[in-house]
Predict the 3D structure of the following.
Amino acid sequence: MFFALVAVAALCKAADIPASAAGAALAPITAVPLPAAPKPFVALLLPLDAPDFAPPAEAVLAGCKAALALVEGTPALEIVRTGASSSHIMAGYEAAAVRGAGVIVGPMTRDGVTALAASGTIRTLTLALNAPLQPVAMPEKLYVFGLSIDAEARQVARSAWADHLRDAVVVRTVSALSRRAGQAFAQEWFALGGRISEALEFDPHADLRRLHERLSRSGADLLFLAADPDQARAVRPYLNNQIPVYATSQINSGRPDPVANVDLNGIRFVEMPWLAQPDNLTAMIYPRPDALAPELQRFYAFGIDACRIANEFLNWRLRVNLEGVTGTLTLRAGGTVEREAMPSVFRDGAVAAR
């Protein structure tokens, strides 16, 4: 013991440290717990400050809150408000990343997603709520989920092919959305090996008898109709009633109206379970905001599924395979969450599962 104290004193002298301080250094150390690391949170990047996008963005936000409220140990949600400009969206994205978001959900606009995909700044798991303007390879950690009319048209093509139909005629309006749906259907139909006899455009306010004459001479065994509900009601009496008609969810207003929808009876289309089958087990566990306009119900359901996926990402479960309220959701190679909507049909003026 004496020799040990002499050695300590000698070391202290050599280092100019008082022996008393050295003795204190040898005293037992009380462990001080480090502060807990902050829990990762979900950042929801929405164009809430853009008048044109605010209503659907608010519906997405409400759906997201409904989804996360049912998650055990509800994850914290931080809302990042942006305008519609790409620069504003990118500034909001960077702010969420700097604050330590575990997952960023958004942007919601195609311009915003395009800017983000090209930015080279993605370091946080991100679920974009739309597709880029042009197909691009998704950067690492960027995933895409959306209510794409193009994807629905491709699903409809596969459904018609599975129904053993092979020769199609495409009927569309002059709107950009209608043309996109018609083009997506045609691309998938050709890829499957199908034939398209004709692609016709119509004006619902014009004389449609010539359209009827051309369709009557067509040898097609199915018709793909790219139109909204009012346009479809106007043109349906002029279509060939001898062949089945297929469409996307664009044809469904979401408003049950047996009288107005009588002309749509028999049309086969795809729709999200939230609207096609409200008593679906998955849909029934979430509150249904009946006061929300039908066109915004889609975005509410979209918000539910988006934040269910975000919660999977937050827990590093990246092999997404969910029965969602917008359809069956599967994460595919390349970063796209594929949504398989529910095969549906108009029956007695109402939507029914097919």
The longest helix spans residues 294-314.
